Every structure is written in structure tokens, then in C-alpha cells.
Protein: SET domain-containing protein-lysine N-methyltransferase
Organism: Haloferula helveola
Amino acid sequence: MGKKTKKLKEEARLRRKMTKLWERGQSDLCEVRGSSIHGRGVYATEDIPAGTKVIEYIGELIDKEESERRAWAQHAKAEETGDAAVYIFTLDKRWDIDGNVPWNTARLINHSCDPNCEAWVEGKRIFIHSLRDIAKGEELGFDYGFDIDCYEDHPCRCGSEKCVGFIVSQEQWDELRKRLAEAETPVEA
Ligand SMILES: C[S@@+](CC[C@H](N)C(=O)[O-])C[C@H]1O[C@@H](n2cnc3c(N)ncnc32)[C@H](O)[C@@H]1O
Ligand SMILES: [Zn+2]
């Protein structure tokens, strides 16, 4: 096989791979639109019953060492630019998924304090499932599960009645409320 034919074949193979990845990152049940919460968000294109597998959260499979390296790099970038987006999901003890790839539509799902979706790990894959019935046109949201540390850096604009004001894992809401109450209490002279 000539060098040129080999190159063309390789290009075609890569194109097929990209198309497959792109298709895997899409879902008929949702689409990307501008969001009132932040930047772009993902919206239901039809009524979605509770317990539906809505879209796959795809990304690059990375080991913990690489994951830590990327987390630090993202943290450093966030300090510099204020852009605190985190896309790394834990799969198991050895592996994580970095969803920061353009074909991962689900990376654009915003955080909500009253989420209608949840991310479930299935083997080495992650899927976004609906937690309740979602009406066509509703924005999808899940709990980012951010740690309470540096909560001030992540104000929440989800707009739900249950909003606690910051993007913090629901598991740490009690602690967050305590800290917010303390911050409000005037110090006596
Ligand atoms: C993974 S991105 C989600 C997509 C994002 N809206 C965009 O257009 O790129 C995560 C970032 O979106 C923003 N974000 C997501 N949910 C938010 C919320 N409830 N309130 C405020 N900002 C939010 C934060 O800046 C967060 O770091
Ligand atoms: Zn909120």
C-alpha cells in the first residue's frame, strides 16, 4: 500500500471514530440551549418519565494518577481565570472519566439544588438518569457533589426553591447551613 493510500485510510478511520463518539454523546431526549443558570445548559426535547436513561456522560478513561494531574491543572486554571468547571467523574478505585471533550454533550448539564437527574456509573460508563418525570422544555440538572471547601467560590444560580445559594453536595447541606449561620452572626465586642 502506498504512503498516500495509507494516510487516506487512517484519516477515514479517525473520521469514523469521531462520528461514532459524537453520536454516542447525543440523545434524542435532550438538546443544548442557552441557560438562565449559566452559559449553555441541556433541555428536555420531550416529556421524560422518571427512571429514564437520558444521555451518556462520555469522556476519556484515565487512571487515578492522570486524574490527579488533570484535577490540579484544572484547579490552577480556575484560580487564574475564575472558570471552575470540573469534568472528572470517579468510576472506581483505579479509573476516572474526564468528560472535558467536545462530543460530551452531558458536560453542559448545570448543577441544581433540586435536581431532576442523577449520574449513575455502569461498569466503565456513566449515564444520566431522570430522577422524576421531566416536562418537555425543562432544563436538566444534577447535583455536582462539590465539596464544601471553598464553597464561596461556587455561588449557585439554579433558581430552585430549595437552592442553598452555593454549589455544594446535598450530603453537606447541614454543615453548609451551619457555616452560613455562623458567618451571619455578628461578633460581640
Ligand atoms: C460543567 S460546566 C456546565 C456547563 C456550563 N453552563 C457551560 O456553559 O459551560 C460547569 C460550570 O457551569 C457553571 N454552573 C453550573 N451549574 C451552575 C449553577 N447552578 N449556578 C451557577 N453556575 C453554574 C459553573 O461555572 C460550573 O463550573
Ligand atoms: Zn442552587
